[in-house]
Amino acid sequence: MPEAKLPMWALAGLGATQIVGYGTLYYCISILVPDIARDLAVSEPWVFGAFSVALLVGAFAAPTSGKLADRWGAGRVMAVGSIGSAATLVLTALAPGAWTFAVALALMQIVSAGVLYSTAFTAIVQAGGRKAQTSIVHLTLIAGFASSLFWPLTTWLHAMMSWREVLLLYAALHVVACLPIHWALARLTSGAVTVARLTDLPVEAAVAHRNGSLVFLFMLLGFAIEGYALSAMLVHIVPLTQALGLGATGLLVASLFGPAQVASRLINLVFGSGLSQVWLAVIAAVLMPIGIVVLLATTPSFAGAVVFAILMGLGSGLTSIVGGTLPLELFGRLGYGSRLGWSTSAKQVTSGLAPFAMSMSMAGIGVPISLWVVTAAGLAGAAAFALIALLQTHAFRQVAG
Description:
- By secondary structure, the protein is an all-alpha fold.
- The chain has 2 domains: 8-195, MFS general substrate transporter like domains (Growth Hormone, Chain: A); 203-400, Growth Hormone, Chain: A (Up-down Bundle), CATH 1.20.1250.
- It has 17 helices and no strands.
């Protein structure tokens, strides 16, 4: 593919649309749930359950979105996704009953695959040339502020209007703010899909193709396991720290996760340029298990819980980076969107199942043993990524021999 450089406006614009996308299609829901439940005459757990099912359904749309991005250009897919996001937000806001709300919510998560990280990363790779890896790190750093901005914004808006009016306002935001950026981005990415030169593949990708199917399988496995472990911990971080004797300070411990996540992206941006993304994936995967071991070994120590939250945040931040950079390093730019779609789908499916599984686990075998199970899962994910590194080493030796 022709060498290119991602313009600053495109990176800044993508950062803005990712903040809006995650803020309006994901983070705002938890703030609006009580009002939604009252209005639709259902319980709050029912609304959360509908949202979990919607996330699972949406996960299966990621591979299709990736294939379309490879074929049409990611910018075009994101432009269509902006329209779809606005339309499904309107449908959700106008839903007359609980089941129509659930269907609209599922449709919203399906179209979200066209505007969130996986497609945005593909746009960067198509338009950003060999600097794409750095631009992906920049994007995750910007988009990391989505929850920090949209939780208080949604709370403020909801104090003045109903949940339906909030969603209608957010629908308008996709048309007014996101659509023009994605449409402009389409001009940068559409040309990239017309040329596919195998010489554009980096050396690492050429070697990886010697064990391509196996490498891809281990990558999917690693992302799926890490998605499960991280989701299981994030949803239950406050109740499980309280169950371990930290009491009200569990909320304070949980609040450290976000800043640590952003810090990990800054650290990687400054110091991680020369590190293989496979080994970065291994490091990201082992940080949370180490944090859990510290938590279990020191509980109910507040200091130990702080170390746990920071390590988990660091691991999560790095995981979001390697989710985009690892497929690029292993397989190059050709077919990147499709591969990223499959890895995103694998991660989202297990992430959607994890909260329920962790809840059942804590109720059945207790918090400490459940945490050891998550620790084992995290280490298994790290092992999957480490096996990729071993396969690469073996392949390089065969080439050299």
